[in-house]
Structures are given as C-alpha cells and as structure tokens.
Request: fold
Amino acid sequence: MDLNHYLILSALLFAVGAVGVIVRRNVISILLCIEVMLNAVNLSFVAFSRYLDQVHGQIFVFFVMVVAAAEAAVGLALAIVLYRNRRTLNVDDADIMKW
Amino acid sequence: MEALFFYLLGGTALVAAVAVVALRRVFYAAGALIVCLCAVAGLYLLLEAPFIAAVQVIVYAGAIMVLFLFVIMLLDPFAANVFPDKSRRLRLLAPLLMALALLALYAMLRTYRLGGAPGVSAASSLERLAETLFSEYLLPFEVTSVLILVAIIGAVVLAKRRI
Reply:
C-alpha cells in the first residue's frame, strides 16, 4: 500500500464532509459532518506517522480527538439551547447575528 | 492482503460518510457515522496504530457518538427535524466545487512520492508514544485538561434551563 492511497481516501472523506457542512441545514447534521472531516484529517495524520515512522502524528491525532470531544459537547449544548429558544434546528432560522 | 483490507475498510468508510451526508433523518446519519468511525479505526490498525484505533472506538464511536444520540433523542428527531435542505442550486454546486478541489489535490499528489512504509514500524510501539507524549508534549497534554474543564463548564452553563 502506498501513502498516496491513504491520502486520497482521506481527501475524499474530507470532501464528503465538507459538502455535508455546506449542503445540510440541520445543526446536528452539520456537527456530524464536521466529525467526518476531523476523521479524514486524523487518517492522514496516522498515515504520515506510519510512513515517516514518527510518533508525532499519532500524538496529534490524540489532541485532535480531545478537541473534537470538547467541540461536540459545547456544540450539542448550543443545539439544545437553539432548539429551546427557537423551536427549530435549522441554521437558517438562527440569524439574529447575521447582518 | 493489506490491499484487500484497505479497499474494504476504505470503501466502507466512504459509503458510510456519504450516508452521513445524504440521509435525511439525523438518527440514521449518526448510525452511519458510527460505521464510518469503526471503519477508520480498522484503517488505523492497518497502519499499525493500535492505541489510536482503540481510542477511536472507545472515545469516538463510544463516548462522543452516545452524546450525539442522546441529544438527537432529546430533541425528538422523528417529529421536528425533517425539513427541506438548502436550495437545489447549492446542492449541485457544492459537490462540483469539491470535485474541483480534489482534482487539484490529485494533481499535487501525483508528483509527491514517498517511499514504501518501513518494514517494522517503530512508531507503533506504545512505549515510544507514551514517552513522547509525557515528555515533549507534556505541556499541551496538561493544557488539554483545562480545555476539557472549560468545555464541561460551557456545556453545563449552556444547557441550564435559564440563561
């Protein structure tokens, strides 16, 4: 297996996640798509770690996971607050900060 | 053998990721994401990163996804959350843009060649991982605990009944 195989798979996963973030309007869907994107990045980190034979890539994946956990907790709390105040999860309805 | 597993797991991850984007019901999308995360964990095993694979399954597919499912159930997805997505124009444009970006990336990758993987991976040893994490990356590691604390406080404050 080539490193490029992993990088291309990672790029494809990232693109799918990015399309989801652009296209979907549900807050929770968008958070799920962000998780897909983070996973794609983690995959290329681990692939580089393997092919360069360095441990740093895996440590970065560890940190990315920590940040992803924090992001999911706060993001989901925001979704709950949005739903409680607006009775919707559509991001287009949450536009009071938009000029 | 390795190629077979790569294509199997990679294909599963890709199909599951497309399902996450395409499925209208958020609950099913979360289920697809769990499949995707587990397939990526298999790829980590293929890349000889057993620790990361285990953390992926336990923390990601376990803890974070359970959090997602709890919130989805709390917000009653089968009643409230199904509404039409963004305009058709954007829905066609976004994949087109991404395909363009991937094409550019592919052109870049074609010229980039790295030799094959080293036969015995030193990076896969857990001792080396722990040693580096707790010496070179000790400060960032400690700072993450502050980050988690802030996230906990933030989540609790946000989810409180009155703000």
Notes: Chain B is about 80% helix and 0% strand. The mean pLDDT of chain B is 84. Chain B touches chain A through 83 residues (CB under 8 Å).
